[in-house]
Amino acid sequence: MRDRDIDYRDQAAILVHALPYIQQYQGKTMVVKYGGNAMIREDLKAAVIQDVILMSCVGIRTVLVHGGGPEIEGMLKALGRESRFVRGLRYTDEATMEIVQMVLCGKVNKDITALIQQQGGRAMGICGLDGGLLQARRLDSEGEDLGLVGEIERVDVSVLEGIFHAGAIPVVSSVALGVGNAAGHALNINADTAAARIAAALGAEKLLLMTDVPGLLRDLQDSASLIKAISCSELETLKNEGIVSKGMIPKTDCCTLALEGGVKKAHILDGRFPHALLIELFTHEGIGTMIEAG
Length: 294
Fold this sequence. Notes:
Blueprint: H1 3-25, E1 29-34, H2 42-57, E2 61-66, H3 69-78, E3 85-86, E4 89-90, H4 94-118, E5 123-128, E6 134-138, E7 150-155, H5 157-165, E8 169-178, E9 186-188, H6 191-202, E10 206-211, E11 229-231, H7 232-240, H8 248-260, E12 265-270, H9 276-282, E13 289-292
Parallel strand pairs: 1-2, 1-10, 2-8, 5-8, 6-8, 10-12, 11-13
Antiparallel strand pairs: 3-4, 6-7, 8-9, 12-13
Helix pairs in contact: 3-4, 6-8
């Protein structure tokens, strides 16, 4: 038997293995938060775009919500401005908000949209201002002024449904339309939080957060200690024990927010691993941490 015949069988087995997952998720909605190294390294960027296009091609209604922290930081430095963070959130004055809006809604959003188009997909790049998709009030962080940082009050899913109806993938940057105490202003929104709120508003099957870590680890120094699946109640126990700490707390809080809003499952994935989305969705083993309500 020729070697290539064996290769063909292996390739066919991979597709057959994925079939029940494709059937299960067809017609379902998933929200992907895209950020970290997967937005910087060209090989990882290409893999994520291919994954998202494949998800769309097999009938998964996919929303791609992106960040852009490194790009914003680079532009601020180029303009001689320093970043300031309050409780992990970027302090956003008027001048900084103009840069955030220019970078996120402009270059980053349109670059991602163009990549999807170049790879044979169809995408529409929007921000939360468009059609009033994301509406937010200014966030009060325990009495500390964050400037033009927002907390989402409403997601108008009709904007996304219109894009789905047109057969396109919504690519969303996390700038919101100010309402109430922020009427007339654009507001900076944490992209993880925006993805969670969008997933909840759409009644999504899954929220998938791409990060620069393998997932939840019992021991931060040991990647083999990855927690493959966990419930929200177990997650709270790990927080109390200090196992979930620092930068992972806001990630898991976003997952909990989505689950409490009706999303069935949330996943924290290592975006440094090529095709992490496909491996998590279409294999039994998966690659990250899956969080369920309960």
